[in-house]
Amino acid sequence: MHLNLDPRAFLHPLWYYFWIAPHVLQALILYFMVRRKLHHQFPFFAVYIASEIVQFAVLYGLSHSRFHYGPVYLHSYVSFLGLSTAVRFAVIYEIVNHVLGRYPTVDEAGRHFFRFSTVLLLLLAVLLAVLMPRSQSEFILTATYSLDRAVSILQCGLLLSMFVFSRYFSLSWNSLDFGIAVGMGVFASVELATSAMWLHLGSFGNTAVNLLTMGTYHCCVLIWLFYVLKPEKVSAAVPKTLPDHDLEVWNQELQRMVRS
Amino acid sequence: MMIATFIFVIVGLLALLSVIVLASGQTTSATVLKNPVQHLRPVDIEAFRNLIAPSEEEFLRRHLQPAEFRKVQRQRLLAAAEYVTGAARNAAILLRFAEGARRSSNAATAETAEKLIAHALRLRLYALHVVPRLYFAAMLPGASFAPVLVAERYELIVRQVVMLGLQYPTQGISAML
Fold it and tell me: Measured by CB atoms within 10 angstroms of the end CB, which terminus of chain B is less buried, N or C?
């Protein structure tokens, strides 16, 4: 994640830190994913991380070239944002597949629920895009941030639906699935708030909003790194006590089995 | 436009809060597993069967005044909804509990746990539409609804817990069901 903003002098170090550090951490995430062969299990997430690193390298290079933060940078930024958004949807789909795949009993119900949620959220996003007043600022950026807001509604809504669904059915998550979903959910919800603010604020306001978005993204990358490094529990919360022979209940059940 | 921006900011913050709360729910369930017996509520299946039995309903309909019957039937349906909620709640705890057994190296234990998970999920799925229907039936005078499958599914769950208890430490949870 990086933003098309020429940084103010006094915020230079923080701005550059938030721009560079998450991508260095993402390189670490990719390294550990490949080392632990997690990229086979999470191909879309690996692609997402790799694309974010490439995106950073290209945009950082452009900003320090003769193009600076000009139209070439802006168009590259918007194109990469589109790619990043598409891959994030694929990552959400990957998480949904992993969680539901472990529970065939609710797999179909879960997929119906997500299809329904997607349609509902899509309608809401389109409705809001149509009803929201338009800003007079630069078209490409206004369109980008409006689209970004619609995407945030969808991604945030889908991840929340996933959490609600798995909470109701007490579904257990693989630790990396959980970490990715939390990171994505936090980022999508903050982006939902900031994309609306962006269109409204002046240059300094945008610097602050951009720093908030970049800082949040940094936290999300840290969450992902933590869960990539965290070993998967082989057997979570397995009671250590010896079997408790509930003879009375067994007896009742046996009687019932014999009767039926 | 200012109001719309403000609404989006609030919605974004609420979404962030929801993500944090729902995600933390994933970890708090681990505390339930440490002492599942404390969180389980006993469900009297025979009493539940009696509550939803059409013959009982018919008997009450014949022997009570219409107004009184509606009042009693409403209370019976609300009580039935409470039973289903309690059974679904127990199923959720057992689901978490069976997750540990599902990862067992013993194939028989893992298979029993898998069956328990499937039955518990079916019960929760069924409860999802049974509870609103029971409340709806309670609101409509004279309406009846007998979710007999709940009792059968709950009994299947209890049976699976007992079976699991033969192979895996169940901390006496079958006695609490």
Answer: N
The Cα–Cα gap between A41 and A146 comes to 33
B12 contacts on A by Cβ (under 8 Å): 152, 156, 189-194, 196
Name which of B6, B22, B115, B128 to mutate to probe chain A: the one with the most chain A Cβ atoms within 10 A of its Cβ. B22
Between CA A127 and CA A115 the distance in angstroms is 18
**Residues shown for chain B:** 177
CA-based nearest residue to A27, from A225, A229, A176, A213: A225
Residue B150, Cα to own-chain centre: how many angstroms?
9
- What digits encode the pLDDT tens for the residues A219-250? 999 999 999 998 876 554 444 454 555 566 66
Interface membership of A189 toward B (CB under 8 Å): yes
Q: B20 exposed, middle or buried (CB, 10 Å; 0-12, 13-18, 19+)?
A: middle
Which range has highest mean pLDDT (A8-22, A120-134, A244-258, B81-95)?
A: B81-95
**Tokens standing for residue B81:** 């909804």
Q: Any CB–CB contact under 8 A between B37 and chain A?
A: no
